Hints:
124 residues, Immunoglobulin-like, 1 helix, globular
Amino acid sequence: MKTKMxxxxxxxxxxxxxxxxxxxxxxxxxxxxxxxxxxxxxxxxKSGSSTNQTWGGTLSGSSETSYKGISVLTGNGECLDNVGDxxxxxxxxxxxxxxxxxxxxxxxxxxxxxxxxxxxxxAK
Length: 124
């Protein structure tokens, strides 16, 4: 009987710890969708002058990044354009999900997986 109680207690403890996983501090998950024929690289989710998240590598036309957690829900995108210059990402509502877009700024819905689609960049 003691063995059954010990086994049950260990099982319940394991379930509790599995359900209480580490919180990464993110408020939402975000990915980028390139709706252009040009490539961009080093995409950043920024709020003011602070960078909240970065996606490395090159994102070619008509492709998407992986999701990453963000802790700031309102911001804009910055990247390196196809010639390597720093540029602001021009967001589009077509293809964007779980986000409110106003010009180059976006507000991501909390506790969602959001996609920000863009149809070009503007050199800084």
